[in-house]
Amino acid sequence: MTNNILEINNLSKNFGGLKATDDITFNVKKGERFGILGPNGAGKTTIFNLISGFIKPDNGKIIFQNESIFGMNPIKVAHKGLVRTFQIVKPFKELSVFENLKVASLTPRMNKLFPNESEKIDWIKHVASICELEEVLYTDTEQLPQGYLKKLEVAKALTVKPELILLDEPFAGLTSSEIEPISNVIIKANEKSGTTIILIEHRLKEFMQIVNRIIAIDYGKKIAEGTPKEIVENKQVIESYLGKGGGEIANA
Ligand SMILES: Nc1ncnc2c1ncn2[C@@H]1O[C@H](COP(=O)(O)OP(=O)(O)OP(=O)(O)O)[C@@H](O)[C@H]1O
Predict the structure, then answer these.
(1) Per its UniProt record, what PROSITE patterns does this chain match (predicted)?
(2) Nearest ligand 1 atom to alpha carbon 87
(3) Rounded mean pLDDT of 50-60?
(4) How far is CA 16 from CA 61, 201, 252, in A?
(5) Which residues pair with 164 in a beta bridge?
(6) pLDDT at position 242, please?
(7) Whose CA is nearest to atom 16 of ligand 1?
(8) Which atom belonging to ligand 1 lies closest to the Cα atom of 169?
(9) When you count CB atoms within 10 A of the terminal residue's CB, does the N or C end of the chain come out lower?
(10) CA 216 to ligand 1 centroid distance, Å
(11) Residue 86: predicted pLDDT
């Protein structure tokens, strides 16, 4: 038995001639806040798509909680407790936050975990409180600013009581003042519910403050692995960012 919740071995995916994921290997420990870093087009979202079953890998191994989920479809993967969010949030606009969370909870996994409806409702309210959505619980989502919608996206994922959440750019489209609350929600979701988190994010400063450990990728290949401090000092990581015209890694 290992302490790893996720083990990725020699994972590869080609799109035509393009190696979007090129022989990637890494492990994520249970309870970690793990980051995947890389410039635009490096292959980060493709890794999420492969792990969550949205696209089929060509080669490699994907082991989740000691079981292979390689090539498994997203519904089965979610049923096992591995869920993801998307860069673009798409709530049911005419429904309230609470109703959106109820819709998210309509899964076989939830029915199994909460056969009793009132316990399910209690859990949804608990998730809303972790995600700081209590004050807007019964507000239609079309009336909410983007910051709340991003919290709702995390809450929808957390509602199904997952073991692992893949968060794809939760800060995209947010102003600086909107980022801190969602950043706190991510940390709280991890600490209060014990859910392991893998994060992709371009806002490097905030990203580095959230994650405990990182892999950096470029052109589909892993180029570094380490703590945030080790990664920002890594020569190859700095070069991959500077090469793409951005010195932002140096300020992270
Ligand atoms: N379904 C697809 N078909 C063809 N090419 C794809 C597909 N999905 C991704 N790619 C290509 O694979 C490469 C990696 O894309 P990916 O979206 O994984 O990068 P990323 O690191 O997430 O980028 P960003 O930070 O801009 O979101 C890119 O060159 C992209 O154009």
Answers:
(1) ABC_TRANSPORTER_2
(2) 27
(3) 97
(4) 21, 27, 35
(5) 82, 196
(6) 65
(7) 43
(8) 27
(9) N
(10) 15
(11) 84
Question: What confidence score (pLDDT) does residue 53 get?
Answer: 97
Question: Is-contact 179 210, C-beta < 8 A?
Answer: no
Q: What pLDDT is stored for residue 95 in this prediction?
A: 96
Quote the ligand 1 centre to 43 CA distance (angstroms): 5
| CA pair distance 117, 119, nearest whole angstrom | 5
Cα(64) to centroid of ligand 1, in Å?
23
Tell me the residue type at 212. N
The residues with which 19 forms a beta bridge, in sequence order, are 14
Distance between alpha carbon 63 and the CA centroid of its chain, in Å? 17
How many whole angstroms separate alpha carbon 86 and alpha carbon 199? 11
Given a cut of 70, whether residue 249 has pLDDT beyond it is no
pLDDT digits (tens, 9 = 90+) for 164-213: 999 999 998 888 888 999 999 999 999 988 999 999 998 888 999 999 99
ipTM for the predicted complex = 0.96
Residue among 21, 45, 50, 169 whose CB has most ligand 1 atoms within 8 A, to mutate: 45
Q: Can you give the pTM of this predicted structure?
A: 0.92
Q: What is the whole-number distance in angstroms between the Cα of residue 230 and the centre of ligand 1?
A: 26
Amino acid at 122: D
Listed in sequence order, the residues at least 6 apart from 71 whose beta carbon sits closer than 8 Å to its beta carbon are: 53, 56, 57
Q: Are strands 59-64 and 213-218 parallel, antiparallel or unpaired?
A: unpaired
State the distance from the centre of ligand 1 to the C-alpha of 76, rounded, in angstroms.
24
* Ligand 1 atom at minimal distance to the Cα of residue 48: 18
